[in-house]
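hey
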């Protein structure tokens, strides 16, 4: 099945060494049935010729805002109206900055201002430029305004550096285009997720818990619902409002959370475990308040059932995503959990840093799958959740092809 059948896609190419990969991208989009027109910045033309892209796309390549020939045929407004999707790959740091500031000084930025179609960008640049706070702030602004930012790959770069900033393979970009052109990237997906802490009672007035506020899980539930998913959010005790269009189930203990998950799991496609579930619970709960004595006391604890591992072991398991809260060797420990618990993806955060993780408004994560790692820099949890949805959607659809 061609998942982009007759979809009209403008591939915008800006100046960067990754521009050579755009030629393959055009072909792979066409393989999925898309009609592709190419717009190139002047920088892009230093790396790859319009003639190459014209031969591949089968259409003249658009390069100039004020080209009278182009205006007569396909001007920026016509291109903006024609597009079902504008996919800029590679998006250079300069193009990202100009998009962020609403520049209209070349054809590509002008048509992005004029179009009502979704705009997706695939940032590709040197890792230091990627890490630069200006670039990250520009990307954050673009995300908040609805631009889909496709996470770059990590690895060795043309300049000799190693780090994030590589343009992903065409397959990843095609999956992202498919996700953008579904009405929402998670349209119709049935999601069950957990969030917040659990409370393990010691007696009627005392309990063992942790610092999870639920902010990360609730933000993710909100963004999944905005992307069209049906979300059931199983939440430990938190003081947060339920996001719009999300069904909420309140629980207290790890055992309650397991029960609730088991009640809802059969009818779900995607399970996300963002809750900080207690690993141990008191072996016995006193039914009356325990009295203070003269001596020290100890409480016997027993292990709780691992909820996410239980879900991942189901014969009809949904696509299963865990979180990992670590204080050191974050990625290595998270990768161990990915394997031990049988997950499809794990999102690792460093909870030793008080600016991110538990109970903070921001987070920074590394998304880990069996064969890839992507770092998402510190962002407000809502913006990070939006980036996570963009990341989860193509991988989810790869395994749940309609
Ligand atoms: O709630 P916030 O204040 O916004 O903070 C967000 C967060 C730090 C809680 C969140 O981003 C996060 O990392 N959640 C997972 C916390 C955790 O329990 O991590 P873990 O490494 O101990 O567990 C690994 C995975 O196993 C998690 O998906 C957890 O939900 C799951 N688990 C753990 C134990 C258990 N009995 N059952 C489980 O399902």
């Amino acid at each position: 099945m061609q998942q982009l059948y007759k979809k009209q896609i403008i591939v915008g190419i800006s100046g960067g060494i990754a521009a050579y990969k755009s030629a393959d991208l055009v072909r792979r989009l066409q393989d999925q049935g898309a009609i592709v027109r190419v717009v190139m910045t002047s920088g892009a033309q230093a790396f790859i010729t319009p003639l190459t892209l014209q031969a591949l796309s089968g259409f003249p390549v658009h390069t100039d805002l004020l080209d009278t020939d182009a205006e007569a045929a396909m001007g920026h407004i016509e291109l903006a109206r024609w597009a079902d999707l504008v996919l800029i790959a590679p998006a250079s740091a300069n193009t990202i900055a100009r998009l962020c500031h609403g520049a209209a000084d070349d054809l590509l930025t002008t048509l992005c201002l004029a179009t009502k179609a979704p705009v997706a960008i695939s940032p590709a640049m040197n890792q230091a430029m990627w890490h630069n706070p200006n670039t990250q702030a520009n990307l954050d602004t673009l995300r908040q305004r609805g631009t889909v930012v496709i996470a770059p790959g990590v690895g060795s770069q043309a300049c000799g550096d190693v780090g994030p900033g590589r343009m992903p393979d065409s397959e990843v970009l095609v999956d992202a285009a498919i996700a953008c052109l579904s009405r929402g990237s998670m349209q119709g997906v049935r999601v069950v997720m957990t969030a917040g802490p659990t409370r393990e009672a010691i007696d009627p007035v005392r309990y063992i818990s942790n610092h999870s506020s639920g902010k990360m899980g609730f933000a993710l539930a909100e963004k999944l619902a905005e992307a069209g998913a049906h979300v059931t959010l199983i939440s430990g005790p938190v003081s947060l409002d339920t996001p719009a269009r999300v069904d909420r189930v309140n629980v207290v203990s790890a055992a309650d959370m397991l029960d609730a998950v088991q009640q809802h799991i059969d009818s779900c496609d995607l399970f996300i475990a963002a809750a900080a579930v207690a690993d141990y619970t008191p072996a016995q709960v006193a039914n009356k308040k325990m009295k203070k004595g003269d001596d020290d006391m100890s409480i016997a604890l027993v292990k709780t059932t691992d909820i996410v591992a239980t879900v991942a072991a189901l014969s009809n398991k949904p696509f299963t995503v865990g979180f990992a809260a670590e204080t050191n060797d974050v990625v290595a420990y998270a990768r161990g959990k990915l394997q031990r618990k049988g997950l499809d993806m794990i999102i690792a955060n460093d909870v030793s840093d008080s600016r991110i993780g538990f109970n903070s408004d921001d987070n920074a994560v590394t998304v880990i799958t069996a064969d890839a790692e992507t770092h998402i820099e510190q962002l407000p949890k809502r913006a990070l959740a939006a980036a996570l949805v963009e990341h989860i959607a193509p991988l989810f659809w790869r395994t749940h092809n309609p």
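The pocket of PMT is lined by residues 194, 196, 212-217, 254, 273-277, 279, 304, 306-308, 322-325, 337, 349, 351, 357-359 (CB under 6 Å). The longest helix spans residues 381-399.
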